[in-house]
Design brief:
Layout lengths: L4 E10 L4 E13 L4 E4 L14 E7 L4 E9 L4 E7 L7 H9 L2 E7 L2 E6 L5 H13 L3 E7 L2 H8 L2
């Protein structure tokens, strides 16, 4: 992976944390000379980028790392954030339900995880699932990076 991927620093304001955060994520090297990379991680805190998006990064002298500068091409994938509110709730239930509709999840800790919604997934199914748990006050969710394709999925219903 070291030959084809590199770590990139993302700095952005997180609505979830209500502060500027730094998050380092893996990216596939597309064109080193042009500074083009493809995100190969699920972001946790809500930069406006999703897995498989192509972006431009350059070396930052202050941070001493490659740093995301702008997204060049959206993949059509989306990212949602899920916070477990109910103590003792088995979050594995939601992980499994998302997996059944072809969504990948990645945990930050016991009460917070992010999900990648692939462009081929009908987002109205995901929203319906999450809204059901949110209405029971089991979770809260946010949609920091919702693709045009997934916005369109919601209009069809």
């Amino acid at each position: 992976m070291k030959d084809t991927h590199t770590k990139i620093l993302f700095k952005y304001y997180s609505d979830y944390l209500d502060e500027v955060v730094s998050e380092t994520m893996w990216a596939e090297i597309i064109d080193l000379e042009k500074g083009l990379y493809k995100l190969d991680n699920i972001p946790f805190f809500g930069p406006l980028i999703a897995t498989d998006d192509i972006f431009y990064a350059e070396y930052d002298e202050i941070e001493k790392k490659l740093m995301h500068k702008k997204t060049i091409q959206n993949s059509g994938n989306s990212i949602v954030q899920i916070a477990i509110l109910e103590k003792g709730f088995d979050k594995g239930i939601i992980h499994e339900k998302l997996k059944l509709i072809n969504c990948i999840t990645e945990e930050l800790n016991d009460t917070f995880f992010a999900a990648e919604i692939g462009k081929e997934v009908d987002y109205s199914l995901v929203r319906s699932l999450l809204t059901e748990y949110e209405s029971q006050e089991i979770i809260e969710y946010a949609e920091p990076c919702l693709s045009e394709k997934h916005r369109t999925d919601l209009l069809k219903n």
